[in-house]
What we know:
The complex is a heterodimer. Chain A is mostly helical. Chain A has one domain (4-490). Chain A contains 21 helices and two strands. Chain A has helices at 7-21, 26-54, 76-99, 102-106, 109-125, 129-148, 153-184, 189-199, 203-220, 229-234, 238-262, 268-292, 296-317, 320-351, 362-365, 367-381, 387-401, 405-430, 445-464, 466-481, 483-490; strands at 57-60, 71-74. In chain A, strands 1-2 form a two-stranded antiparallel ribbon. In chain A, helix 3 packs antiparallel against helix 11 and helix 12 (268-292) packs antiparallel against helix 13 (296-317). The longest helix of chain A is centred in the middle third of the chain and has 32 residues, at 153-184. The two termini of chain A are 18 Å apart. By secondary structure, chain B is an all-alpha fold. Chain B has a single domain, classed as Helix Hairpins. Chain B is elongated and about 60 Å long. The A-B interface holds A 130, 133-134, 137, 141, 144, 148, 151, 153-154, 156-161, 163-164, 167-168, 170-172, 174-175, 177-179, 181-182, 187, 231, 234 and B 20, 25, 28, 32, 35-36, 38-40, 42-43, 46-47, 68-69, 72, 75-76, 79-80, 82-83, 86-87, 90-91, 93-94, 97-98, 106, 108, 112-113. Chain B: Belongs to the CPA3 antiporters (TC 2.A.63) subunit C family. Chain B: InterPro entries: CPA3_antiporter_subunitC, NUOK/Mnh_C1-like.
Amino acid sequence: MINLLVLPLLIPLLTAALLIFLAKSLKAQRILSVISAIGTLTASIILLLTVKKNGIQTVNVGSWDAPFGITLVSDTLSALLVTTSSLITLCVILYSIRSIGTARERFYYYPVVQFLLVGVNGAFTTGDIFNLFVFFEVMLMSSYVLIVIGGTRIQLRESIKYILVNVISSALFVIAVAMLYSVVGSLNMADISQRIAEIGHLPILTVIAVLFLIVFGLKGAIFPLYFWLPGSYYAPPVPILALFGSLLTKVGVYSILRSYSLFFYHDQAFTHELLGILAIITIIVGCIGAIAYWDVKKIVIYNIIIAVGVLVFGISVATEETYKGTVFYTIHDMIVKAALFLLIGVMIKITGTSDLRKMGGLMKKYPLLGWTFLVASFALAGIPPLSGFVGKLLIVRGGLAEGEYVGSLVVLLSSLVVLYSVIKIFMNGFWRAPKDYPGEENQPVMSLWVPGAILVLASAFYGVGAELMYPIISQATDALVHPAIYIDAVLKE
Amino acid sequence: MEILMSIVIGALFASSVYLMLSKSLLRIIIGTGLLSHGAHLLIITMGGLKRGAAPLLGEKAASYVDPLPQALILTAIVISFGVTALFLVLAYRAYQELGTDNMDEMRGNEAND
């Protein structure tokens, strides 16, 4: 099945088109969304197994041969990320059915979520730098709609800033692509890599690399460019926040990982050093935010920034071991962040507030919620045998082996801060004297808890079954360490 | 020709930055429009201007213009067109809801939520 890797893009795209016509019937929308999300997940799992067995899969769109047409490339890394995104989207849709509210559902919430999945999966799958821009735009357009859907005051106010930041970064992306094209004369990522290796290292390439770093850093929220994230992500309701927090920033990180391992690896003394410094500051800034706030949403939002810092640090060291750690940690972080957002969403639904000081005593009435939250927190902080541990272990060990002591130490210490920040939620939200919250009986707590629990379970399996995942992760890393594998697969004919 | 284009692009970027730094929302949106125009001109310039005949089969010429930047620019124009339209609608909606188009009054703080 040569077109298999198009399915994770095609299924959500067609579903979204269909769902627009079904806007009147909420029931049909919900059922179709869930079925399509399951379909996308199944297709991506089959894709992952195929890639694992047969190596990198490519499709030349419109049968234009590789360096000239647009190529879709699915290596193990992108198949893994596509699978994870599809799983998260499925859980978020399940969660949304009982929580997002009929007004938003009527205004095309489900189609837009599907479009977002098209953009995210496309960005992970494409092998063409301009096509990456297009999929970024698909993703961003959907996120513009999602961030403002419902039209509350805070959403309108924050969405304007979010759009402005992203319009500027899109313009920079176009500029960066134009400059890269004028130097290299190709848009196919494999071909770019090959040509850069041929022409050797030019100073302008370092400039372009930094320009791309600014573009992807704005999406991924690394240090000087993260300023928009806490405000904008705070505005939309929890399911949308879960989608944004787990998928959008990781697309930025993935793009940095892909471009810096595939073609911008010739001037590591400058580019990767810069990446390392930014990563460390990102972690520190995220830590300060995570400790400072008493608002559950804000605490987890700042944890996104910490995780991005850890991942970027892994990329900056650029050895086989840290790449493995980065890949492992990316998947872990996507799953566990989505789980945490969905679980705090349940807490917010029960208590009617996101302020920790007004919560308390949830453990008495909702023990299951409490324990799943605790497992998710431990996984986030990286307590063995849960999934955060393996990724961080690999990143830190790789960092120490390369003599990056400061960065490795910051990553280790950040785990303590992460643990403190989420345990603060646990202690204040679930312990203390139970309180009565008006309207809590009417909340469908169990059905809201299930999607979060599925993700926590997935994260636990991912951590405990790290031994099983390891061959897949190392296969994903091979293409990052040896760009030749990726190039050969794309340009083989 | 390329030098001239570079000056035009630079002027576009400069004016867009100036506009985007102002407080009025409408000026900011016009600024983003100019920024994307600058970026599009940059693409077309980067492909090289007037280097040969039109890239059509049957045209007999020693050299052809690279058609790719034109395909890219078309895509980028359509995207920025869509985003600008959305942005304008959103700005109007925000103006209705918040009663201001001054970015200073749109700061996020607890008193304002």
